[in-house]
Amino acid sequence: MNTTLEAPRLTAHDRCDRCGAQAYVKVVLTAGGELMFCAHHARAHASALEPIADQVIDETDRLHAKPELVED
Fold first, then answer.
1. C-alpha dist (Å) from residue 39 to 4, 9, 23
2. d(CA 49, CA 30)
3. How many domains is the chain built from?
4. Domain containing 17: what range?
């Protein structure tokens, strides 16, 4: 059996640390800890976060994705 690990999916419960909007970007810091940002604040602070980030989970593409119909 093969197991595929995916980056944790951000949900509506994840909030931007700057403004409280829904977070679409999670930044794991090299010094430990993590920050969450909405798309706007992730773009605004990207250059400052880049040198201190160990991992960036960017799900901003979900903002433009069309919902899929789920059939029972």
1. 27, 15, 7
2. 10
3. 1
4. 11-61
